[in-house]
């Protein structure tokens, strides 16, 4: 009776604002129930646009496609291949597959046993199907195309106990709304490859937005793009932890084309022990040094340079992933595989060899989070920007750990404090 009297428009979520449509993120049309599997081939009557990536020919038609994402696809395929080699099996769910190029590459290059290629855009059906058929592999046996909302397909897989070893979430903007259903559909100890193209907020320019999307208040710091990766991982840590899982990154990759933030994570059963690696990062604008703070130090956040007084110069962001960005052993194996396949070099626009070598160097356990940009050192030292090579060798000579950063070309990761970097820059100038 009461229900009948309730106004029809009243929903439990009516207090929430209507999401603003973002034309870039809009999907033309969603499939309705039971429209899968995709019917067999019909004559092609559409715009075709053929391309080649790592020797594989495919059509992008009118789907969303970015050539610049090729390195992200290379990295995904390398990691997936190693997974298959070590486990002997590989089932992939490419939840937002665009034209299906990732699915095709997982199938052909990583030799996935099965690939489920899904996209919400029903108009991309023929393109995805044609691309996967070009693999010469049997439809239904080795691959299948679905055209659903990503959350729906992943939830259906979970409910049908159809679990996947690798789930690829290549979304527009933030990945956050897909995480829960992705983790549900993932096999235990599986891999989750997530993407954020949320450049503005990842860079610390929209802390309210990062709080809403990733549960982290992220403010501008000199190494904001690394924070973007840490925010992305931290977001998965939070969702996974609620579900009884923890994550460890295999690699974290930032590309200024977009910009795009990508992380490949291993998802393991069990909670994060004592919230290690999930905390707060501070940067002091006075001294230029950064520190990590755990949750129980929250009330005592200050920079040693300001005599333990809370300073207006201290910028704090978090909670974020504060642990390693990469698994050095995994990346070393990816590098070996890339060389074996002749992928080293810059066939897809990025020098893969150089990128993976830098990632290995960044994994030195002596190196803290963040990086120091040499222009910042130069401006604090009141000298011209020193040559990167010269600073690297000076730091090494003095016994500091140092590596280049794959995120910024004129920056270094080092355990050397800013005051010493300033001294070195001044000495190099003389
Ligand atoms: C960045 S593109 C994917 C590109 C593709 N992975 C590649 O490597 O070329 C994102 C895709 O997600 C699809 N999409 C957006 N929202 C979706 C949703 N909620 N469910 C399923 N697909 C969605 C879009 O149609 C688009 O093809």
Automatic annotation (TrEMBL):
Keywords from the UniProt entry: Methyltransferase, RNA-binding, S-adenosyl-L-methionine, Transferase, tRNA processing, tRNA-binding
Ion transport as UniProt keyword: no
tRNA processing is among the record's keywords: yes
Enzyme class of the recorded protein, top EC level: transferase
GO MF entry, a single one: tRNA binding
UniProt xrefs under SUPFAM superfamilies: S-adenosyl-L-methionine-dependent methyltransferases (SSF53335)
This enzyme's EC code(s): 2.1.1.216
Reactions catalysed: guanosine(26) in tRNA + 2 S-adenosyl-L-methionine = N(2)-dimethylguanosine(26) in tRNA + 2 S-adenosyl-L-homocysteine + 2 H(+)
Origin superkingdom: Eukaryota
Example of a GO biological process term: tRNA N2-guanine methylation
GO cellular component, one term: nucleus
Alphabetized InterPro entries for the sequence: SAM-dependent_MTases_sf, Trm1, tRNA_met_Trm1_C
Family: Belongs to the class I-like SAM-binding methyltransferase superfamily. Trm1 family.
Protein name per its UniProtKB record: tRNA (guanine(26)-N(2))-dimethyltransferase
Originating organism: Rosa chinensis (China rose)
Lineage: Eukaryota, Viridiplantae, Streptophyta, Embryophyta, Tracheophyta
